[in-house]
Amino acid sequence: MSVLLSALANIQNQLSSVLALKGAWSSIASAIFVLIGLRAVFRWKNVLEDIDGPEPESWLYGNMLQLHFPRVLGEFEFKWQERFGPVYRFKGCFGRNGLMVCDPHVIQQILSNDDIGFGPAIDYASYAMFGPNSVQIRRGDTHKRFRSVLDRGFTATAVREYEPILQDLATDLSEKWEADATADSQPGALEVTHSLRVATLGAISRAMLGRTTQDLGETFMYYNFETVALSSTQDEKAVLVNGIASYLPQGAMRSLIYLPLAANRIIRAAYSSMDNLGKEIVKERLQYAKQGIDTSGDFYGKLIGEKENEAAPNIMTADEIVAQTSLILLAGQDTTANAMAFTLFELAKNQELQNALRTEIYDLGPKDINSERSSAVIYDGMPLLNAVIKESLRMYPAEPWADRVALRDTVVSLRESITTISGQQLNQVPLRKGDSIVLGFGAYQRQTPRWGSDPHVFRPSRWLLDEGNIVRNDGIGPYANLLTFGGGDYTCLGILEMQVLLCTILRKFTITLPSHEQEMRPCLRNVIMPMLPNGERGARLCVSRLL
């Protein structure tokens, strides 16, 4: 017992130094930490401990720092997958065992399992940023009803209706880049990521809410981008807090949003501004509907129109529609902007590929967006354009991995059996309530058996007809056998956004790399951000006007 107490005392000191706490807060945190340590030491062993996996860096952090802070995307989990296979054990904070799953069929099984839900960090972030009545938080029949209503805004037909909006935004973006690049009569490197974020926010706001970014106002824009930035500024403290949170009741974790912290103030202010915006728009659309004015020009207007039709199936109340505003505005803007930044980065590295895509755009791209034939149909008929987009989403998924937790005791069936350390053959893995699961989306999308002998190389030709057998089997995910969209039934507005933006940008510009900035790196967990070697966030690319 003296050895145990000595170890816990040492860990307690580590916690105090990591969290830099003082006085009463330090005593409270230390007491919580000791209780967690005792629980970890005396916990019952389970099957996960008998499954092979990587050695932890420390008992305090396990493998979590490797997952959260790689120098490049997948620095560790890609190697772990090669060594241990698509299902293996990893260590969380405080020596806790977790299950890493990179098999897409098992991932989809987990995503559809009601006994498995969001991990504490995602649940807390979703609750704080999207509110208690968002589709991200609600469960059961209410969640299913919300999903069935909201998904109608992201069908292929619905997304194509947004194309004129995307064309306008793409034109505005290219004009801004042209002005910025030639401001001093010297074409130079531009920080493109922020302007891409503004464009993607504008696309979502206009298509979903009927508002331009100018309509949203400076205060709204400030809190919006500050909230987005919070998702990519984690450090070791956040990882440790997340580890502690896994031992706390859900209600206790969610109540942390009311702590007087700077990040919490930003999140609360952002949520309040988005909630007020939603109330304003819904109130306006309801008034229009009562006056007999057509409200179908944007998605919220369509939902209000359905609400006024009592015979419409699966409708949402006005308050329920308002409650989705924060999620709609935050969920898609940064992911699409980052996907575009990485795509432009890869095209900047490969001028031959960029020129080939530009030729296709001139030959096959839309000539007149007002023609009877939808430009969206034309985009779908451009093989190289879509191969480039698919390869970018494969290489740089917006969420390279996602954490889940067993809400109740459950069982995960395996597609292929695994041999444990003790020699047992497992066809399924029993999970106890509280067990952690990590879904390796990015690792799956770098599997050699699935994607060919060079899965770590950006090569769009793997998507073309001569190699189509590699990427067409299995039927995993709603788009291109990728898990970029998780377990959703629909792809997002971002695919058409990328098609429109790429066609517009490459018609006007040549994209090259600044000589001293030859790489970008993914930054932090879950949200990938273009990142330069010096640690500066954002992608600086040379944007030169085509002659």
Automatic annotation (TrEMBL):
<comment type="pathway">
    <text>Secondary metabolite biosynthesis; terpenoid biosynthesis.</text>
</comment>
<keyword id="KW-0479">Metal-binding</keyword>
<keyword id="KW-0408">Iron</keyword>
<keyword id="KW-0560">Oxidoreductase</keyword>
<dbReference type="InterPro" id="IPR001128">
    <property type="entry name" value="Cyt_P450"/>
</dbReference>
<dbReference type="Pfam" id="PF00067">
    <property type="entry name" value="p450"/>
</dbReference>
<keyword id="KW-1133">Transmembrane helix</keyword>
<protein>
    <submittedName>
        <fullName>Cytochrome P450</fullName>
    </submittedName>
</protein>
<comment type="similarity">
    <text>Belongs to the cytochrome P450 family.</text>
</comment>
<keyword id="KW-0812">Transmembrane</keyword>
<keyword id="KW-0503">Monooxygenase</keyword>
<dbReference type="InterPro" id="IPR036396">
    <property type="entry name" value="Cyt_P450_sf"/>
</dbReference>
<dbReference type="InterPro" id="IPR050121">
    <property type="entry name" value="Cytochrome_P450_monoxygenase"/>
</dbReference>
<keyword id="KW-0472">Membrane</keyword>
<dbReference type="InterPro" id="IPR002403">
    <property type="entry name" value="Cyt_P450_E_grp-IV"/>
</dbReference>
<keyword id="KW-0349">Heme</keyword>
